[in-house]
Amino acid sequence: MKTKEFYVVNSFAKKSFEGNPAAIFVEGNEIDEKKMQAIARQMNLVETVFIMEPDNKKEYDFELRYFTPIKEVPIAGHPTVAAFIALEASGKIHISNKSNYIIKTKAGLQEIKVHKDNDETIVMMESSKPVFYQEIIDRHEVAQVLGVNVDDFIEDLPIEPVHTGLGHIVVPVKSMDALMKVKRNINELKELCSRVNMSEAQVFTFETYDGKSNIHTRNICPRNGIEDPGCGIGNSAVSAYILKNKYPNEREIRLKAEQGTIVNMPCVIETCTTREEGNNMRVLVGGTGRVMIKGECNIE
């Protein structure tokens, strides 16, 4: 029987049993696409990642493919963090020898920076360049979809679709109370997202539980199952949105975001967003993680 080693890594976790889990197969070269999807369905986590090493590393170091239990997605933030935590745990990378990597994904080539901070491995990923779309004017519809009141939205900030790899409707609310009462009305949200060509909503407030954090966010995704405890790509969209709309005269902002408290899987997600020439932005998003499980999967 053929087996493949895998890890379950909780991304954005400060300690065990926190964070956002992903399954990582560090040797994915011999697994075909149909079997990748079957394995992801078996793992039944938000994403399962398969890492392939190219024959020639001139263009990129690793290729990553991301599968939910039902389909492949082009890129995802927390599984990328988990992937590099697993690569280090498996001995396939050594941060003391190399700290910058290029990965190939269905969204293109992405830069990954890995470093140590007080013995913690920190993985920062470059998201796709932010693209901003037309503000959603009908706040009453958004309020109805999310189960909140129009008065819960921050008046002087827009409800704006932002694409940093997946596509998020970024929604600013005034308070933690407002954020925590947001409902996951899956069918209504799916319809709204489809209409504006986005995948999910990322709702945030400037109120936080930890005084060292800058924002608290929730990823409201139109699919069944547990709410995503920590969405890296969603937080990169929020970070770009905040630089554009709240700090239009700043060149760079660094944010620490809380997420996942509502599902008892707290995450801490770090972003660094820099304004570049031509109104472009560069967003790095990431954090640390914990290896929770190491095992073998029978694939035949």
UniProtKB/TrEMBL annotation:
One annotated GO molecular function: isomerase activity
One Pfam family linked to the record: PhzC-PhzF
SUPFAM superfamilies noted in UniProt: Diaminopimelate epimerase-like
Gene Ontology annotations for the cellular component aspect, listed alphabetically: cytoplasm
Catalytic residue list: 47
Protein name (record): Phenazine biosynthesis protein PhzF
Record lineage: Bacteria, Bacillati, Bacillota, Clostridia, Peptostreptococcales
